[in-house]
């Protein structure tokens, strides 16, 4: 009898059981909540997301963090800010075991070359120590100003210990702004 009641309920002129199932939704989509009772509910997916977020915020009262607040937990990351300007940010985390160097720089590019040196061996040693290992270094870059230089960046590469930025098209010259983020994990001793 419950199944008959479910079948009798229509949404947008279709029986609930006949509605197509979708695999991609957005937060304005309706969601049909159906169970073994003869009552079927409908709600916006965004409302459910907000409800879930509120529930997590109220019940995740930091028991996973041993009853510490997020600020207390984050302070245990032992962050040390070394430099913080609009052009460059350098800081360490976890008592100096993890170092981040990020910022923006302008490099000159030559016609039909397709690459430019970003960082020398000396710069890398200055930031990460004389015995830094490139295998512990992660580099991310992107075009910091496509109006100044309309190019697309490939992933940066290390060649002879120096970091080069490759780009296309190669028929460009002049100044190119590159935003970067270098992350280095020191050996645990």
Characterise the protein shown here.
It is a single chain. The chain is an alpha+beta fold and 189 residues long. Helices cover 19% and strands 38% of the residues. The protein is built from four helices and 13 strands. A hairpin with a 7-residue loop joins strand 3 and strand 4. The longest helix has 15 residues, at 45-59. The chain is extended and about 60 Å long.
Parts with pLDDT < 50 across at least 5 consecutive residues: 1-8
Distance between the termini: 68 Å
In which order are the strands of the major sheet placed?
5-6-7-13-9
Which geometry do the CA atoms define?
A: extended
| Strands, count | 13
Largest sheet: 5 strands, antiparallel
Structural class: alpha+beta
The percentage helix is 10-25%
What is Rg? 27 Å
Mean of all residue-level pLDDT scores = 78
Total of helices: 4
Share of residues in strands? 35-45%
Helix and strand pattern:
HEEEEHHEEEEHEEEEE
Reconstruct the topology from this structure.
Blueprint: H1 2-8, E1 10-11, E2 14-15, E3 30-33, E4 41-44, H2 45-59, H3 70-75, E5 80-84, E6 88-93, E7 98-109, E8 115-119, H4 121-128, E9 137-143, E10 152-153, E11 157-159, E12 162-168, E13 174-185
Antiparallel strand pairs: 1-2, 3-4, 5-6, 6-7, 7-13, 8-12, 9-13, 10-12, 11-12
């Amino acid at each position: 009898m419950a199944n008959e009641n479910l079948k009798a309920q229509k949404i947008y002129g279709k029986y609930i059981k006949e509605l197509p199932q979708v695999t991609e939704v957005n937060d304005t989509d309706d969601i049909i909540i159906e169970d073994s009772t003869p009552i079927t509910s409908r709600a916006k997916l965004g409302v459910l997301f907000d409800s879930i977020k509120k529930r997590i915020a109220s019940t995740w009262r930091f028991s996973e963090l041993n009853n510490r607040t997020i600020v207390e937990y984050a302070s245990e990351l032992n962050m040390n800010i070394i430099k913080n300007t609009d052009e460059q940010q350098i800081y360490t985390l976890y008592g100096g075991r993890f170092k981040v160097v990020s910022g923006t720089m302008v490099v000159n590019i030559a016609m039909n070359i397709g690459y430019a040196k970003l960082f020398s061996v000396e710069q890398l040693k200055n930031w990460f120590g004389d015995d830094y290992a490139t295998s512990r270094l992660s580099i991310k870059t992107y075009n910091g100003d496509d109006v100044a230089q309309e190019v697309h960046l490939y992933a940066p590469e290390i060649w002879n210990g120096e970091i080069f930025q490759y780009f296309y098209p190669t028929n460009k010259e002049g100044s190119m702004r590159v935003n970067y983020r270098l992350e280095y994990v020191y050996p645990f001793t």
